[in-house]
Design brief:
The complex is a heterodimer of chains A (115) and B (111). By secondary structure, chain A is mostly beta strands. In chain A, strands 2, 4, 5, 6, 9, 10 and 11 form a 7-stranded mixed beta sheet that branches. A 4-stranded antiparallel beta sheet of chain A has the order 1-3-8-7, with no helix packed on it. In chain A, a hairpin with a 7-residue loop joins strand 7 and strand 8. The mean pLDDT of chain A is 90. Chain B contains no helices and 11 strands. In chain B, strands 2, 4, 5, 9, 10 and 11 form a 6-stranded mixed beta sheet that branches. In chain B, strands 1-3-8-7-6 form a 5-stranded antiparallel beta sheet, with no helix packed on it. In chain B, strand 9 and strand 10 form a beta hairpin. The N and C termini of chain B lie far apart (41 Å). The mean pLDDT of chain B is 92. The chains are: A mainly beta (115), B mainly beta (111).
Chain lengths: 115, 111
């Protein structure tokens, strides 16, 4: 069983378009995340979200917005795509319990290419 | 701000030990992690260490933590070609909401 899944795996689109990447976790976790990995493999947090709060990395443009229809899903919507948005986007989840180790489980990634 | 630093490349021969080093800045870190990323794949949690521990061993993996120097290392014994991957050191941010990753160390294992 896939713990954290993302669709699509690859996404090629033109500048100016709006696109969404879906993420689902079947682990029963409370918190979900989006990370961006650039061409140099550097990974940075974009958002973390649970039913209490959304925390946004201040460097993320407001063209990016997470949407959570329910606890098991956190989708990433991107407006007016730019060339610099090309990257691999990873979804992750963890159990929001401060007695635990905050282990985060990652999805396989979505490679976004903006042309 | 909080930062995690790693060397970018390490090359070893099959059967040797690999040691990947990491330094971090957040003195209040409670957990530190090692993740592995194989080509074209997502991140896999390899191991983690709690800040009140100096060492943790898990089969071929040994994690050493020097809290005074804010230094973390991952030793892989008897390195195999299948260990070739990018290894990320990560720290939980002060808010406990997200991981701060180092830039990743690309481990290349030659036979």
């Amino acid at each position: 069983d896939t713990a954290v899944s993302q669709t699509p795996k690859y996404l090629v689109t033109q500048m100016g378009n709006d696109k969404s990447i879906k993420c689902e976790q079947n682990l029963g976790h409370d918190t979900m995340y989006w990370y961006k990995q650039d061409s140099k493999k550097f990974l940075k947090i974009m958002f973390s979200y649970n039913n209490k709060e959304l925390i946004i990395n201040e460097t993320v443009p407001n063209r990016f917005s997470p949407k959570s229809p329910d606890k098991a899903h956190l989708n990433l919507h991107i407006n007016s795509l730019e060339l610099g948005d090309s990257a691999v986007y990873f979804c992750a989840s963890s159990q929001d319990d401060r007695t635990q180790t905050y282990e985060q489980y990652f999805g396989p990634g979505t490679r976004l290419t903006v042309t | 701000g909080e930062d995690v630093e790693q060397s970018l490349f390490l090359s070893v021969r099959e059967g040797d030990s690999s040691v990947i080093n990491c330094t971090y800045t957040d003195s209040s870190s409670t957990y530190l992690y090692w993740y592995k990323q194989e080509p074209g794949a997502g991140l896999q949690l390899l191991t983690y260490i709690f800040s009140n521990m100096d060492m943790k061993q898990d089969q071929r993996l040994t994690v050493l933590l020097n809290k005074k120097d804010k230094h973390l290392s991952l030793r892989i014994a008897d390195t195999q070609t299948g260990d070739s991957a990018i290894y990320f050191c990560a720290d939980l941010d002060q808010a406990g909401t997200a991981l701060i990753f180092g830039k990743g160390t690309t481990l290349s294992v030659s036979s």
